[in-house]
Write a structure and sequence with these properties.
Elements lengths: L1 H8 L22 E4 L9 H17 L5 E6 L5 E10 L2 E14 L2 E2 L15 E7 L7 E2 L15 E2 H14 L1 E6 L16 H6 L5 E7 L9 E2 L4 E10 L6 H6 L4 H24 L2 H8 L6 H9 L11 H30 L10 H6 L3 E4 L11 E3 L4 H10 L5 E6 H10 L6 E3 L5 E9 L6 H13 L2 H9 L16 E2 L22 E6 L10 E6 L7 H8 L2 E3 L4 E4 L16 E2 L25 E2 L6 E2 L1
Parallel strand pairs: 1-2, 6-9, 6-10, 13-14, 13-15, 18-21
Antiparallel strand pairs: 2-3, 3-4, 4-5, 7-8, 10-17, 11-17, 12-15, 12-16, 12-17, 19-20, 19-23, 21-22, 24-25
Helix pairs in contact: 3-14
Length: 610
């Protein structure tokens, strides 16, 4: 303390010292300490209170939260004070708080910085909401008397998450809705929710906001709490129009050859008629043949001509042309029958390169750097409007971009009319986060709560609640199966057994019995030490499954088909380490190597023999 006093006395009366090794523009240090070498200002308690209150107000205005003031009293003791947000008036008020005291070589408490923002005293935070299902959904019930700004209307993955955080930290929400798109500007010209953040009109903004924006440093942002693949959306059963159907029997090379033959034949006729003598015209066309071009087309279409030429060479040319056109007509009619008989669809691209090669036009709100500008149509609407345009374009090659979860949500709402799917090659992985004002004090407590929700599996549960994965590709992988009949089968492609299991390596196992009456003790049960969640709708569909024949199902596949069995002194084995050292407060390691020995039950003694 004396060294600090000598250091401070060597400088001017008014001075501020900051040691900051962080990147410029980021949040201030989590923990800050102010050392005051002005004992006269603290002689009077009321003056001391006013000085601390004024000092902490200035600290709060520059958005520094974890701060203590340390000063030495006359008796040699050192006292520590801090401030608590959300006093009288919530955001506008603060309350002073005595933290600790060091006297006679002893510290009063074993901590220096108190826990911050664990209870916000039911103060109200303004939340700007960008409606983008399934991450953020607004329930607009006209019969609900509550105002639109009430958080009861907020749903979706992000909506439920922010309400869980609000309940945990004891604060209320007031919803705000922007009148324009939410875009980050460079010179204080942001729009939508970001404009409200710049103008101090809201504290939080959610709505599927990306973590990879080039100007995200203008605001503070939370940790990434959700990921989804960004993809190209196309119509799965895109059909050919009537004209294309007539052209499809032949490839482009054959059509070019036919056009070339017709062009050469017509040019030869024109040359002979304009520059040939009468004998040459009679030798090639025949006598009294005033319309050789008309005869050329008439024979090609399979119609007869009125007069045949008398000269052998003219008849030879006519015979060659009739054989050629007969071959072309028969082959065309055969291929046309095959085209009309089978419902041919437009070949869907599998990669972005094929999408560009097939000249699919992209519907987007702005030009994208990963797609050609000459194939982009600017449509200043949301993704739902673009989905409707692509879904209704049965004969046009249109595409748009979105998250795969947006597509699944749209297909689940329009399951009876949607034909949308996506190409296999993804664009990139979309990371979602919420935004705060620059250097907001809410960032660190919110990050802590969000990480707890992620580690507890709450975010995965919300994803399964709102994202219907089976609706990602319509007319391809959606099967409605309400009964299991004898001989029923369906192909399963691209299934990962590992993805069906929870993300854990710990389990419990024992020797049990079969699941149907008879209950033969020939089954080894393995119970994974983590639950798998299903939605209410999935449980409903499971209970609707029937057994028996297709015409007369016997009974539903529900409830238990076997009676409860006794324990029979079974040995339960596990790789979970439940042991802990009594001298330590740490949790079990969960990684201890285990080995098992077979046990045999002695009915005579009733003991386990090893």
């Amino acid at each position: 303390m004396r060294i600090l006093v000598q250091f401070l006395q060597g400088f001017e009366a008014s001075m501020a010292v900051q040691l900051n090794l962080d990147v410029t523009g980021k949040l201030p240090n989590i923990y800050n300490m102010f050392i005051i070498d002005s004992l006269e200002a603290f002689l009077n308690f009321h003056e001391r209170y006013k000085l601390l209150h004024s000092l902490f107000l200035q600290i709060r205005d520059i958005k520094i939260l974890n701060t203590i003031v340390m000063y030495e009293d006359f008796d040699g003791s050192i006292e520590f004070y801090t401030f608590v947000l959300f006093g009288d008036g919530c955001w506008e008020g603060i309350e002073l708080s005595f933290v600790n005291r060091f006297r006679n070589g002893k510290i009063l408490n074993n901590w220096l910085y108190p826990k911050r923002l664990t209870d916000m005293l039911n103060c109200t935070l303004r939340l700007c909401v960008h409606d983008l299902p399934p991450l953020v959904q607004l329930v607009d019930d006209v019969n609900n008397p509550k105002p639109l700004s009430d958080p009861i209307r907020l749903r979706g993955i992000e909506g439920d998450m922010i309400k869980i955080v609000a309940k945990s930290m004891n604060f209320s929400l007031r919803l705000l809705f922007p009148n324009e798109r939410s875009l980050i500007g460079f010179n204080h010209n942001s729009t939508g929710c970001f404009g409200l953040l710049e103008n101090d009109e809201t504290e939080i903004a959610i709505g599927s906001f990306s973590a990879s924006h080039v100007s995200h440093y203008i605001f503070s942002s939370s940790c990434t709490y959700y990921q989804s693949t960004f993809i190209f959306v196309v119509r799965s059963d895109l059909t050919y129009n009537a004209l294309i159907q007539l052209v499809r029997p032949f490839h482009n090379e054959i059509w070019r050859c036919k056009f070339t033959i017709f062009t050469i034949a017509i040019l030869c006729i024109i040359v002979v008629k304009l520059w040939g003598c009468a004998k040459l015209r009679e030798f090639i066309f025949g006598a009294e043949n005033s319309g050789p071009v008309v005869n050329l087309l008439t024979i090609y279409l399979g119609n007869p001509i009125t007069k045949l030429p008398r000269r052998n060479f003219a008849r030879f040319l006519l015979m060659l042309w009739m054989l050629l056109t007969l071959l072309l007509r028969n082959s065309y009619q055969g291929k046309l029958f095959d085209v009309m008989r089978v419902a041919h669809r437009v070949h869907l691209p599998r990669t972005i390169g094929e999408l560009i090669h097939e000249k699919f036009y992209l519907l987007a709100s702005a030009h994208l750097d990963f797609y050609p500008a000459n194939l982009t149509i600017i449509v200043p609407t949301n993704y739902i409007s673009r989905f409707n345009v692509v879904n209704q374009a049965k004969n046009s090659k249109l595409t748009t971009v979105s998250m795969v979860d947006n597509l699944a949500h749209f297909n689940s709402l329009n399951w009876n009319s949607s034909c949308l799917t996506y190409i296999n090659e993804p664009i990139y992985l979309f990371h979602t986060m919420m935004y705060f004002q620059k250097r907001s004090v809410l960032k660190y407590p919110f990050d802590k709560k969000i990480k707890l929700l992620m580690s507890a599996g709450i975010m995965s549960h919300l994803e399964k609640k709102y994202v219907k994965r089976k609706f990602m590709k319509m007319n391809q992988s959606v099967y409605k199966v309400y009964s299991i009949n004898n001989g029923f089968s369906t192909p399963i492609r691209h299934i990962s057994v590992r993805s069906l299991l929870p993300n854990t390596d710990h389990y419990i196992t024992y020797e049990g019995s079969t699941t149907h009456p008879g209950c033969w003790e020939s089954t080894v049960w393995i119970i994974v030490n983590k639950p798998i969640y299903i939605t209410k709708q999935e449980l409903y569909q499971l209970r609707r499954l029937m057994q028996g024949s297709e015409t007369s199902p016997k009974a539903p596949l529900g409830n238990n088909a076997r009676p409860l069995q006794g324990l029979h002194h079974r040995t339960v084995r596990t790789n979970i380490d439940f042991k802990r050292n009594k001298n330590q407060n740490s949790c079990p390691s969960m990684y201890k190597d285990m080995y098992y020995r077979a046990n045999r039950w002695s009915p005579d003694t009733g003991l386990l023999i090893r």
